[in-house]
Amino acid sequence: MVEAGPWWIGLLLPAILGAFALGAAMLDAGSYPLKAAAGLLIQQRRKTLAADILLLRAGIFALVAAAVLAAVVIPLGEVAVLDTGVGVVWFNMAEVLAWAAVWMVGWGANSAYAMVGGYRFVAQGLAYELPHMFALITAALGAESLRVGDIVEAQRDLWFVVWMPAAFVVYLLSVLGMAFWGPFDQPAGRDIGGGARLELSGVDRLLFEGGRWMLLTAGAAFAVPLFLGGGGWGWVIVKTAAALAALVWLKKRVPTVRLNRYVEFAWIVLIPVMLVQALVVAVVVLVR
């Protein structure tokens, strides 16, 4: 049974997320993230003409806040910072905050390329969000509850990943889109168009990248209670690390996907697949 934990767990949550995010970054690029972070700490902030600094910085902090807010409903063993009857909805609400955050960063820089990156993320969100919501709803349907603790309890005999494999795969893909990472990193800008982070430097860049990695970590961690049966502290750590490692591995194997191709794939393939998966789960629940 998952219950609300003591208040001090909430204070530890950003540190826990940050530690996992740093570990994943080092798995991806060795010691480079530590050197890059040290360099950004002493780097002077770059400013663009007529930039809206308040909007830009608000977007940076909102991205970090989105990751932390998403994580408060993730059970840490048998406790969670927030035990609410609508935990699945809360998680989805928190990660949608990232939409506004990235757009604010891109718009606030007063740079055409940065603004393009912000709008790219909005377009990408329109592609991944519906499959993402169907994956969340499918897990909730299997447990007949929106409470994360009830979803964990429903997997006592059989993990949801066993009979909801499509939902699990689609969920992980949507986590990559949510963190605009790996094959879905066009909003971050590898091409000449740049990205939402194009004009960021110094501490601003460090916080933005940290928020991105923390969002990826929160998404990977939420797969544990949704599809992998939850468990005690040790199991949660192991399963979260395994999900993160799988996402890092995927980045190294799959090139960046063109945004229009991803939108087409999401609407033509992912959404119909998730509708069938949800229908199968609904039939099983009715029969049960």
From TrEMBL:
Compartments, as annotated in UniProt: Cell membrane; Membrane
Keywords assigned by UniProt, alphabetized: Membrane, NAD, Transmembrane, Transmembrane helix
Primary location recorded for the protein, binned into one broad class: membrane
A Pfam family it matches: NADHdh
Keyword Cell membrane belongs to the record: no
Membrane topology type: Multi-pass membrane protein
Bilayer-spanning residue ranges: 6-27, 54-76, 96-116, 128-146, 158-181, 206-227, 262-287
Family: Belongs to the complex I subunit 1 family.
Name under which the protein is recorded: NADH-quinone oxidoreductase subunit H
Species, as recorded: Kibdelosporangium philippinense
